[in-house]
UniProtKB/TrEMBL annotation:
Species of provenance: Medicago truncatula (Barrel medic)
Keyword NADP: no
Residues annotated as signal peptide: 1-23
Protein name per Swiss-Prot or TrEMBL: Triacylglycerol lipase
Domain of life: Eukaryota
Similarity comment text for this entry: Belongs to the 'GDSL' lipolytic enzyme family.
Record carries keyword NAD: no
Lineage: Eukaryota, Viridiplantae, Streptophyta, Embryophyta, Tracheophyta
PANTHER family cross-referenced by the UniProt entry: GDSL-LIKE LIPASE/ACYLHYDROLASE (PTHR45966), GDSL-LIKE LIPASE_ACYLHYDROLASE (PTHR45966:SF34)
Keywords annotated in UniProt: Signal
Amino acid sequence: MGGLMYLLVLCLGIIMQINHCLSNSMIMKCLPRKHGALFIFGDSLFDNGNNNYINTTIGNQANYPPYGQTFFRYPSGRFSDGRMIPDFVAEYAKLPLLPPYLHPGHPEYIYGVNFASGGSGALSQTSQGSVIDLKTQLSYLKRVKNLFREKLGHEKTKELLSKSVYLFSVGSNDYGSLLDPNSGSLLPVDHQQFVDIVIGNLTNVIKEIYDLVEENLGCLIWVLLAAILA
Ligand SMILES: *[C@@H]1O[C@H](CO)[C@@H](O)[C@H](O)[C@H]1NC(C)=O
Ligand SMILES: *[C@@H]1O[C@H](CO)[C@@H](O)[C@H](O)[C@H]1NC(C)=O
């Protein structure tokens, strides 16, 4: 845990130093060289409202009271009565609160964006059909990259993505699904094989992000419940 905190502090150093001339159209021109963004992946520990915009079950959504009552004063879709880890990370990095990716009307994502979806896991079978699985979250990052390339060009996109922080909370729903008699039978393997599959899929996503960023991956943090539980 101490190591994680150290890493977090180190990573936040990378994305701090932002100035505030972003509302005009020449977005990147006034960003200092150190500008990086924050990209959030994972499950209900990080979802800040994406599941509001998908067809899912009420158990996978948090858009009703008493959620949200102590800070936002409305149920934003966070599985919390207040802010959550990504909100505090953004705050300490002097970034604005990130939008959920599926929220309409945030075309820039210049400070980053949140792709997390409550109920999701590293495996596409986990809560299949009622969540945005990790691979789909990855495909959203690819879309954001394309958007950046259209607006900023190749070099600046590369620079921005390589200075960004990628924060994950993944794994507990995969393991939790084993307790659910309806979904546990999807993968007829023993516990160690199941752990290997979860870690294998997560590793693939991390590798793809590494390729997407092209080089100099700034910082990648796993709040890796999978590894702890395994
Ligand atoms: C939403 O999901 C339910 C249950 O799976 C299904 O019956 C319904 O048609 C879906 N609605 C839309 C708009 O896709
Ligand atoms: C990823 O998960 C699928 C099941 O969704 C599994 O068949 C596959 O072997 C896993 N991949 C790795 C690299 O572990």
